[in-house]
Amino acid sequence: MLKRAAWFLLFIAYLQTPVLFGQISSREEAKRSMVHLLVDDSNCNGVLLNNTQLDGRALVLTAGHCVTDNNRFISATFGRDILLDQTTIQSASWTTTNISVLELSRDLDYMLLEINDDIPDYVLPYYAGWNSGAGLPLYTYSIHSPDIAKRFNEDLDRPTFATFDVITTFGGTPVKDATFNIGDWETGFTQAGSSGAPLFNQWSQMVGILSGGSSTAENPVNDFYSRWDLIYEDGVRQYVNPAGRTSNVLRGLDFYRERSSLFKQVNYDGASEVVGNTGESMLSERFESSGFRVLAGVFITLEEVVPTDLMQIRVVQGSTIVYEQELFTGALQEFEENYVSFDNAIEVNNSFTIELSHNNSLTIPLIQQTGSNVVVGSSNRSDTSLGIGVLLRGLPDALEDSSELSVLYPNPSTSNFFVNRGDLVDISSVEAYTINGVKLRPRVTLDFDNRLIIDMSDYQKGVYFISYQVMDEVIRSTVILN
Questions:
Q1: Contact present, 317 and 246 (Cβ < 8 Å)
Q2: Under 8 Å CB-to-CB from 363, ≥6 apart: which residues?
Q3: How does residue 334 score in pLDDT terms, banded at 50, 70 and 90?
Q4: Residue 449: pLDDT above 60?
Q5: Buried/exposed code over 350-372 (b: 16+ C-beta within 10 A; e: otherwise)
Q6: Which whole number is the average pLDDT over 43-68?
Q7: pLDDT tens-digit profile of 210-231?
Q8: Three-class SS of residue 311?
Q9: Highest mean pLDDT range out of 52-66, 224-238, 273-287?
Q10: What is the mean pLDDT of residues 230-241?
Q11: N or C: which end of the chain has fewer CB within 10 A?
Q12: Of the candidates 31, 124, 93, which has an alpha carbon nearest to the alpha carbon of residue 337?
């Protein structure tokens, strides 16, 4: 028991160490990839997957037994439960029935769906990364939603390969060792309605989907997850790897890295000098974001208002109004999420202000998060947040196997990793670590083309962390040695 506890503490420490963690997804991101499916009257789960084109194609993987031959009405709900701050957003879910079935296997018990509608910004879709390499994860967790709430299961031990004979009841023929068997959950349990839930490994890469089991609250044991590496080779590769990459690993894709800014000055009174209507009230809050971001929209939670009240939204950067939009408050209240999507994305850097002007000074249009003394009119100073939230969208990172300047490649590799350094990378700055944080001393040299060579041939196959400094920036990479 001590060994397990010590290993787990090391594992948690490495999860929380950005120098080592690199570009691996987090549990919070993985939560946003889980999809709730309703097939006629039956609940199932699924996972939204990334693909090597990084284009946001909405591919959802779930269990094949969720659909019978005579049963193909499917609805998918994104963003339910815990994704957004419930004090400012009443609900953050979106449902569609515009779904195609791309692949279905009874033997491996999987189904690949495609969502044909655009997933709206406000549910913050996360496209899960995956690992199609054969092998046993060191540690696993699963996220599932048999009802309203999302639930979390965790197993601190390696799973085992197993044959799931129950496949016969789904109309398939069991494939030897085609599932991961979770012997005993340390945290949580599954239940009816959890089928199709994703299984993640120690790097939050999707490695399987729930086929079935005997887990209960009283006895959380013996669950079986169909293996992603077999599903991948069976017929899904063409969809999730259209670029034909040789790597078995693809990280997750997050177009929406921040729902709210890193800093918000509440009830900010620094509104721009804009001439408004007589009797108009002006409310504003200032946001600050580190580095470049794209502002996709705002969340505004209203109290009781006259539906015909006109509200104007402005985005101000410095002394310049960079975006304006008008809408009636009644139109906004039609949407539970109270989300306003901008007509075009706005590039923002560092600080910017969201201004709301309202043509009825007798109405407070916003729900206050804390405190009570919001003054509408000449003074907007208060210690109270007005409940304005912003949706900031990041840009997808480059592919891991890119060979551009300062990017480590190839990944994975059988021995050496390269950096096209020019004169930028100092050999002495290169550091390598195991997943447990043990520092290594790989041979580092330059080749005839002035490329940096990091020789890892002396080390066992597995995942390592390599960092190196370019000018004043530290580049951190997660690498696979195979």
A1: no
A2: 303, 304, 305, 306, 309, 376
A3: low
A4: no
A5: ebbbbbbbbbbeebbbbbbeeee
A6: 91
A7: 999 988 888 999 999 999 999 9
A8: strand
A9: 224-238
A10: 96
A11: N
A12: 93
Distance CA 281, CA 329 (A): 14
CA 131 to each of CA 12, 230, 292, 383, 428: distance values in angstroms, whole numbers, following the listed order: 21, 11, 30, 47, 32
R_g over Cα of the chain: 25
b/e sequence 257-294, b meaning 16+ C-beta within 10 Å: ebbbbeebbbbbeebeeeeeeeebbbbbbbbebeeebb
Residues 116, 122: Cα–Cα separation, whole Å: 17
pLDDT in tens, 145-175: 887 677 888 888 889 999 999 999 988 999 9
The pairs formed by 6-14 with CB atoms below 8 angstroms and a separation of 24 or more are 7/156, 8/156, 10/436, 10/437, 11/139, 11/202, 11/436, 13/437, 14/435, 14/436, 14/437
DSSP run (H or E) holding 15? helix 2-15
More confidently predicted of 297 and 288: 297
Of 295, 287, 298, the C-alpha closest to 262 is: 287
Burial of 91 (0-12, 13-18, 19+ CB in 10 A): middle
More confident residue, 332 or 218: 218
pLDDT of 280: 52
Q: Report the distance separating Cα 482 and Cα 473, nearest Å.
A: 28
What is the predicted pLDDT for the residue at 199?
A: 96
Strand partners, 128: 49
Token reading at 446: 């330059």
Euclidean distance between CA atoms 448 and 450, whole angstroms:
5
Q: Which residues pair with 184 in a beta bridge?
A: 221
Predicted confidence at residue 384, as pLDDT, reads 55
- State yes or no: cis peptide before 412, omega within 30 of 0: yes
Using 50, 70 and 90 to split pLDDT, how confident is the model at 292? low
Q: For position 223, what pLDDT does the model report?
A: 95
| 150/152 Cα distance (integer angstroms) | 7
Helix (H) or strand (E) holding 385: none
Q: Residue 309 in contact with residue 356, Cβ under 8 Å?
A: no
Domains and CATH numbers, the chain: 17-255 (2.40.10.120), 263-393 (2.60.120), 408-481 (2.60.40)
